[in-house]
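2024-03-11 09:14:02 DEBUG pipeline.ingest accepted 1 chain
2024-03-11 09:14:02 DEBUG pipeline.ingest length=141
2024-03-11 09:14:03 DEBUG pipeline.predict start
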Amino acid sequence: MTDWDNIEATIERGSSTPTDLLLACEHVLENWIEARTQQPTKREREGFRLLALHRQGAMGDPSFNACRETCREVAYHYNLLAEGGPKQGSAPTLAMMQIVANHLMLFVRGKMEVAGLGEFCCSSKSLRAMDTDHLVSDARA
């Protein structure tokens, strides 16, 4: 399993390349699969191992499909940057890829920490709501 701090540092580093970000996303999904005591696939789907890892990770857990489009968006931004090479206008594309990679990491990491998180990616239960539950019960006492 890849250390979450290393993955996060790669994603947040301003000097990360598209390949660095793609590999970091693969490590995120590898962690998910390994946490489920499975061996991450080496196969590719539509030319990306990331998409094959997502497919493997979603088997038996339909709520994991919430990050399917996020994985596809990482692949899309990678293709934009890899196909065209470095040119004017690539900085915003790389920044967007970085944001999407961070979203994937937060979704998967949160899902691993809190059972049931991510039924619907954009409306998933807030982690902060659980922190305030005890305040409501303390106020009633």
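2024-03-11 09:14:41 DEBUG pipeline.report Residues 4-140 form one domain.
2024-03-11 09:14:41 DEBUG pipeline.predict end
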